[in-house]
């Protein structure tokens, strides 16, 4: 399962989610604006900007289609 940590009004977050939907990849979205309890978790993972994409032991930030393709 792919997890996407996103924020409101985030163009890259929207692009990641659209890419996943277009490729029929199931994902769980956690909006850190709506669920601020996840902010510390994201920071502990070493990230300071959304979107953060996580699957198993792989995580990265930003809209990176080549990295997204490796997840599926």
UniProtKB/TrEMBL annotation:
The gene from which this protein is expressed is: nrdH
Function (record text): Electron transport system for the ribonucleotide reductase system NrdEF.
Recorded protein name is: Glutaredoxin-like protein NrdH
**Mind giving the lineage of the organism this protein is from?**
Bacteria, Bacillati, Bacillota, Bacilli, Lactobacillales
Q: Which residues form the Glutaredoxin domain?
A: 2-57
What organism is listed for this UniProt entry?
Pseudolactococcus carnosus
């Amino acid at each position: 399962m792919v997890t996407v940590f996103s924020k409101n009004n985030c163009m890259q977050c929207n692009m990641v989610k659209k890419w996943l939907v277009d490729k029929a990849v199931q994902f769980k979205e956690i909006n850190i604006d709506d669920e601020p309890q996840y902010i510390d978790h994201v920071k502990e993972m070493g990230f300071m900007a959304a979107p953060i994409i996580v699957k198993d032991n792989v995580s990265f930030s930003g809209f990176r289609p080549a990295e997204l393709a490796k997840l599926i």
